[in-house]
Design a protein that fits this description.
Number of strands: 2
Strand order of the largest sheet: 1-2
Helix content: 55-70%
Structural class: mainly alpha
Number of helices: 6
Mean pLDDT: 91
Oligomer: single chain
Largest sheet: 2 strands, antiparallel
Shape: elongated
Radius of gyration: 18 Å
Low-confidence stretches: none
Strand content: 5-15%
């Protein structure tokens, strides 16, 4: 029987996961320092507590061999992003990936540079 998937992260948890994906396995202090650049109001105690909660929920694994515990995401960034995207497409776009893409393109959420990159991707996959 496969292991149960970890729950979907809250927005605050997703922010910490993004930091951990960028830094690699890290202590709460390292994550706090990286997060303070974006959120100067965030305290070390809040980061530590949130990371402990995330560990309890199965979003993070923890190496306890050192005095300062080292945390790492359980899921790879791409894997979690794909899972969240699948949920969004199913819930908000009736299962249509096309509807999601068109909404993003029409809604002004895609820059000219991103549109050019998307166009190149479409052309490359058509030729393949």
């Amino acid at each position: 029987m496969p292991a149960p998937r970890p729950p979907k992260p809250t927005p605050a948890e997703l922010g910490l996961l993004r930091t951990l994906w960028q830094l690699g396995p890290s202590t709460a202090r390292q994550v706090h320092e990286a997060q303070r650049r974006e959120r100067p109001d965030l305290t070390y105690a809040n980061v530590l507590r949130l990371m402990q909660i995330m560990h309890g929920k199965g979003l993070l694994k923890r190496d306890e061999r050192l005095r300062s515990h080292v945390y790492a995401p359980v899921q790879a960034q791409g894997s979690l992003q794909n899972r969240l995207l699948d949920d969004l497409i199913h819930k908000a776009f009736a299962g249509s990936g096309k509807a999601l893409v068109l909404a993003a393109l029409r809604g002004g959420r895609v820059s000219d540079e991103e549109r050019a990159e998307i166009q190149r991707f479409l052309e490359d996959t058509r030729d393949a």
